[in-house]
């Protein structure tokens, strides 16, 4: 009744170590290292017999890195920030479907733009949708006894697109478009809080204050749209009686500027 083989449970072995400042310190800080090794990870792989794909248990993946945090207070102003470095990689070889990838098996054989090509994942290739660098910073200003203003910044580095698991996709401007990754981005958020009563608080929150246009993730796939936004069913001439298709990098847009206000009541 199902096309997938029986799947074993994913097992993760995690190690962590770190140091932090004393609680009574005016300037607080912490630093840590982490490493997680996953066995029997579940991936959607390509079938060499049927030409389709299925879910199966994959060898191993690893996520390791370090993170640091610092925070302090200067009179009415609180400042803080944190940084995380994440190295997420495959640790086993596997064959995956990669029709939208310029390095797939069919493209390497000279048949660019055709569906059905596979890609080979090797140990050390970066996992898709996992940025390496993440930075968060904030500042809280207590303007008066009742009014507080806070400003926050989130900055995320680029990440590999889904479909580019071997990290080898290179656009040629004809059959394969887009870089095969989502660019880095930063977002600024602003909030204010006013304590009307010990149990009643008014607040205003504005996310993406600068209305920055950004993308959270990306994926490789086929498209019938031209750069001008028009649809073409067969944008490329036939090769051996078959029509190749154009493959592009699709992006998931981040949320635009958004603002709301409300009342918080505690009992």
**What ranges have pLDDT less than 50 throughout 5 or more consecutive residues?**
none
- Count of the separate structural domains: 1
What is the count of helical runs? 1
In CATH terms, what is the fold-level topology? Maltoporin, Chain A
Mean pLDDT: 91
Distance between the termini: 53 Å
Strand content: over 45%
Structural descriptors:
267 residues, mainly beta, Maltoporin, Chain A, 9-stranded antiparallel beta sheet, two-stranded antiparallel ribbon, 1 helix, 54% strand
Describe the overall structure.
The chain has one helix and 15 strands. A hairpin with a 6-residue loop joins strand 1 (11-20) and strand 2 (27-46). By secondary structure, the chain is mostly beta strands. The radius of gyration is 24 Å and the shape is globular.
Detail the topology: elements first, then pairings.
Layout: E1 11-20, E2 27-46, E3 53-74, E4 77-90, E5 94-97, H1 105-108, E6 118-121, E7 133-142, E8 147-156, E9 159-160, E10 181-182, E11 185-197, E12 200-207, E13 215-223, E14 246-253, E15 258-265
Antiparallel strand pairs: 1-2, 2-3, 3-4, 4-7, 5-6, 7-8, 8-11, 9-10, 11-12, 12-15, 13-14
């Amino acid at each position: 009744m199902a096309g997938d083989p029986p799947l074993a449970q994913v097992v993760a072995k995690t190690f962590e170590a770190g140091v932090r400042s004393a609680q009574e310190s005016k300037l607080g800080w912490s630093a840590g290292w982490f490493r997680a090794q996953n066995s029997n990870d579940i991936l959607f792989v390509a079938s060499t017999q049927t030409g389709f794909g299925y879910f199966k248990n994959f060898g191993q993946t690893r996520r390791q890195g370090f993170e640091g945090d610092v925070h302090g207070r200067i009179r009415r102003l609180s400042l803080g920030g944190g940084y995380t470095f994440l190295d997420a990689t495959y640790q086993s070889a596997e064959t995956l479907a990669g029709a939208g990838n310029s390095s797939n098996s069919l493209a390497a054989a000279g048949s660019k733009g055709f569906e059905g090509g596979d890609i080979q994942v090797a140990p050390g290739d970066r996992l898709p949708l996992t940025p390496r660098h993440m930075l968060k910073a904030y500042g809280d200003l207590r303007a008066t006894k009742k009014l507080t203003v806070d400003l926050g910044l989130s900055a995320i580095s680029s990440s590999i697109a889904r479909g580019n698991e071997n990290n080898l996709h290179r656009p040629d401007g004809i059959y394969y478009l887009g870089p095969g990754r989502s660019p880095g981005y930063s977002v600024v958020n602003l909030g204010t809080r006013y304590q009307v009563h010990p149990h009643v608080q008014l607040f205003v929150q504005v996310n993406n204050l600068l209305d920055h246009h950004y993308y959270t993730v990306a994926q490789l796939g086929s498209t019938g749209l031209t750069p001008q936004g028009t649809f073409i069913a067969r944008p490329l001439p036939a090769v051996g009686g078959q029509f190749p298709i154009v493959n592009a990098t699709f992006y998931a847009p981040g949320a635009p500027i958004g603002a709301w206000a409300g009342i918080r009541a505690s009992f």
